[in-house]
Amino acid sequence: MAWFRRRSVSAADTRGASTADLQHLEQFVATRQGVEAYLEPKTTVTEHTVMLIAFDGEWTRRRVPSHAAVRAWAHRLGVPVYDVALVGYPNRWREFNERRKQAQQS
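The structure assignment produced for this chain is given below.
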């Protein structure tokens, strides 16, 4: 009996972007002002992801097919794209999360 058998991560273990994910991102851009896209690196658990952050710090995150696909999509919609590994997340995102946390505690 193999106690410590190595298990490789298969395509079934990770979920890529779905049509619903992409529709959600489009709806977020269409219903918010000042949206910027922040590309997040691939991890062992998720494929490529993008975080969209509006001018007030409201945000959403979804899986995407690739960073190149996000750049093309964002260019078409006029959304600026940043690599989070290079620039980090904006302060308005942290402030939004803090405001939401304070509201939940009240």
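Interim note for the steering committee: Residues 19-105 form one domain. Strands lie at 36-40, 49-53, 59-63, 81-83.
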